Amino acid sequence: MSSMERIHSSQYYTFFQSDKERCFYIDLGQKLVRLSFCQLLSLRQKVWGITIEHHFDEEVNPHGLEILTLCNREHLFVLNTLEILDLKALLSDVFFVLGIAAQTPSLTSKI
Amino acid sequence: MKDIARQQMSIKVESMDMLNAQIQMEGKASASYLAMASWCDQRGYTGSADFMYQQAAEEREHMMKIFKFVNDCGGNAISPEVANINHDFSSLEEVFETALTQEIEVSKSINRIVASARKNSDFGVENFMQWFVTEQLEEEKSIRDILDLFELMGRDGIALKLIDERIKAA
Questions:
Q1: What is chain B written as a DSSP string?
Q2: Residue B12 at interface with chain A, using a CB cutoff of 8 Å
Q3: Domain named Ferritin-like diiron: which ranges (chain B) (predicted)?
Q4: Shortest CA gap B150–chain A (Å)
């Protein structure tokens, strides 16, 4: 844990980078998940693919929950609407801080 | 702190997202050309069918070129899902009109990627996409030239046969 540097925190989650292991960690509250860069890209892709509007449609997603598998199905999380929105915001900000995103509305509005 | 993410990926994530959308678009264009080839083949328009088969192969080549580029840059290329391909056309001319509309949409999308890459100083992506800009000009021209044949030769049975004979896969 000491070799990890905190990159960014959202309301529920915290994102770390480990220089020594050349990887990333996300503290999802229930569990600390280790991610390689390509696993991080894959997580972003999955979270981006979630249509949040479906959470407000009783017929499509009556419980407002998402099942999220991470790291080639090594981990499984069940997240509610607020947690998904928070994870989206976290990842958006993190990619900006890591220097591979051109813009992030949530961070730039805070500056 | 080491720049681990930048060491892993040479392009911006926004560019990667747009390139993945382009992969999807090229994949759909390829499938759409196959549907057109099938329509032409079934009605004896063999020249047009050959042209459409070749277009389908070219669109797939474009898709693969972008797909490989995204992965080579350390990104995450997404295999496209293709659905809702139109197989219904009322005439040979409509087939080519649809093809031109499709090519124009592809050109617009490519131009948006170039504009975004330039805005974000993602020069590697901008440079890579230049080939597609030139390619799209040629694609649009070849279909426009075919549509001109309908104006010149008419739309009757024999005219259609003569037009079809003039259409050759490059």
A1: ---HHHHH-SS-HHHHHHHHHHHHHHHHHHHHHHHHHHHHHHTT-HHHHHHHHHHHHHHHHHHHHHHHHHHHTT----PPP--------SSHHHHHHHHHHHHHHHHHHHHHHHHHHHHTT-HHHHHHHHHHHHHHHHHHHHHHHHHHHHHHH-SSHHHHHHHHHH----
A2: yes
A3: 9-154
A4: 44
